[in-house]
Amino acid sequence: MPLLSISVFLPLLTGLLLMALPNKSARIAHGVSIATTGLTFLVTLAVWARGTLPGGFAQVEEIAWIPAIGAAYRLGIDGLSLPLILLTSLLFFLSAIYAARITDRPAVFVALMLMLETASIGTFAALDALLFYVFFEVSLVGMYFMIVGWGYEERQRAGLMFFIYTLLGSLPLLLAIIGLYLATGTFDMRLWIETPPLTGLAAMLALIAMLFTFAVKIPSFPVHTWLPAAHVQAPTVGSVILAGVMLKFGTYGLVRFALQMTPDAFARAGLVVLAFGVFSALYGAFVALAQSDLKKMIAYTSVNHMGYVVIGVAVAALTLDPDLRAVALNGATLQMVSHGIVTGALFFLVGMLQSRAHDRDMAAFGGLLGQVPRLGWAFVLSAFASLGLPGLAHFPAEFQIFLATLNAQPWAIVAIIAIVVTAGLYLRAIAAVFLGERNEKWAAMPDLDRGEMLTIAPLLILIILIGIAPSWLLGMIDATMRALQF
Amino acid sequence: MARDLSFLFPELLLASTVVLMLVAEMLRAPRLALIFGLIGLGLSTALTLPLLEADTSVFGGTYRVDLLSGWAKLILLPGTALALLMTRAEIAGQDREGSVYALLCLVTLGALMLAGGGDMMLLVLGVVLTGLGSFAMVAWPRDDAATEAAMKYLVFGAVTGSVMIYGLTFWFGGAGSTLFSELGALDGKPLIALAGLVAVLIGLGYKAALVPFQFWAPDAYDGAPVSVAAFLSVITKVAAIIAFAQVLRDLPVATGWPVVVALIAAVTMTFGYLAALVQSNVVRLLAYSSVAQAGYFMMGIVALGTSPLALPSVIVFGAAYVAMNLGAFAVIMIAGRDLDDFRGFGRARPVIGVAMVVFLLSLTGIPPLFGFVGKVLLFGAATEAGYLWLAVIGILNSVLALAVYLRIVVPMYQAGDGDAGRTEVAPPLLVVLGATALVTVLMGLFAGVFPG
Question: Which family does it belong to (chain B) (predicted)?
Answer without folding.
Answer: Belongs to the complex I subunit 2 family.
